[in-house]
Amino acid sequence: MPTSGDQSAGRRNPDDRKPNANVDSTSIMRIKNLQLRAKMIVHGFYNGLHRSPIHGSSVEFSEYRPYSVGDDLRGLDWKRYARSDRYFIKKFEDETNRRCYLVVDQSKSMGYGSLEYTKIEYARTIAATIAHFLMLQRDNVGLLTFDEEIGDYISAQTRVGHFHHLLVALSRPLQGKGTDIDAPLRQIAGLIRRRGLVILISDLLTSIQTLQTNLAYLRSRGHEVVILRVLDPAEFDFQIDKPSMVLDVESGREIYIDPDAARQDYQTKFNEHRQQLGDVCDSLGVDHYEISTDDSMDDALFHIVDAQSRRGKSTARGGMLVGAAKAAGGQP
């Protein structure tokens, strides 16, 4: 699926939404235990890594800085010197101390689903899978859930029992109605002191302007941001064929829909919102991916790998993932 590195970032063809055979979504979602789901998806992902072209070292460098007298000469980048005739030092960052925060939308709109399961069930599974995967690498993983208010907040840790606490918070039933994307992103920006990775999992049925402001603030503080936009297949196309009364799950209002009058308006607004989201993410260097709930369940992990490998520090992070797979012997 395209990423925010090109003009089609995050924009998918509605006619090209066929589930990947790696980890079939319907089969996985029939498993009631969230922890077991996550482990099975990670297992499928590790198997997929054996076919992946991603390679690199196990430590990533975060940035360059000019050489100063007294710096360790082992950090000099001689290739960069050959190109620029100036001395630069690579600043390295130990990936085992990485901090990742999962920000998961639990508003009422996430309770929609035209399949055997809803968007929130799919999103929870993605979040649990990413958490399990990163914790296998000894990365610190935290969680913040939200609807119109902030729900659970769990700080980023790797201690024994931490994954269970994440699963408990992810499994709470939907309670709020609306979506306030402002509060959780502002809180995460204030809580993460060191440069970290923020993964936002949401249908993003919210104001683009508010989202842009908060994404810009996160990026200005040096955080990497990846957006996984989760949508139901029915949301890509207007699928009401006859006049109907529909319920807005976030406002509670019933709305009369004339499909002939509403279809074009819906598609126009959906595509405009999608385009605006893509433009904002492109301008801020935020990787974003549009995921349909009928997509293969391991796609989200591949998107995270892709987001890291497409950045300036990409090769190293990709190598970290491959190294983790080898260390685990291809097993989660």
Question: How would you characterize the overall build of this protein?
Answer:
This is VWA domain containing CoxE-like protein. It is a single chain. The protein is α/β, with parallel strands linked by helices and 332 residues long. The chain has 2 domains: 261 residues, Rossmann fold (3-Layer(aba) Sandwich); 34 residues, no CATH class. Helices cover 39% and strands 19% of the residues. It is built from 10 helices and 10 strands. The chain has a 6-stranded mixed sheet with strand order 5-4-3-6-7-10, with helices on both faces. Strands 1-2 form a two-stranded antiparallel sheet. Helix 4 packs antiparallel against helix 5, helix 6 packs parallel to helix 7 and helix 9 crosses helix 10. The longest helix has 26 residues. It is globular and about 75 Å long. The N terminus and C terminus are likely disordered.
Keywords, please?
two-stranded antiparallel ribbon; 332 residues; VWA domain containing CoxE-like protein; single chain; vWFA_dom_sf; Rossmann fold; disordered N terminus; alpha/beta; 10 helices; six-stranded mixed beta sheet; 2 domains; DUF58; 19% strand
| CATH architecture call of the largest domain | 3-Layer(aba) Sandwich
Percent range for helical residues?
25-40%
Domain tally: 2
Task: Please report which band the strand proportion falls in: under 5%, 5-15%, 15-25%, 25-35%, 35-45% or over 45%.
Answer: 15-25%
Report on the biggest sheet: 6 strands, mixed
The CATH class of the largest domain is identified as: Alpha Beta
The separation of the N and C termini measures: 25 Å
Q: What is the arithmetic mean of pLDDT?
A: 78
Structural class: alpha/beta
CATH topology assignment of the largest domain: Rossmann fold
Strand sequence of the main sheet, in spatial order?
A: 5-4-3-6-7-10
Can you count the helices?
A: 10
Which radius of gyration do the C-alpha atoms yield?
A: 21 Å
Question: H/E order of the elements?
Answer: HHEHEEHEEHHEHEEEHEHH
> What overall geometry do the principal axes of the alpha carbons give?
globular
Within CATH, the superfamily of the largest domain carries the name von Willebrand factor, type A domain
Number of beta strands: 10
Low-confidence stretches: 1-21, 50-62, 312-332
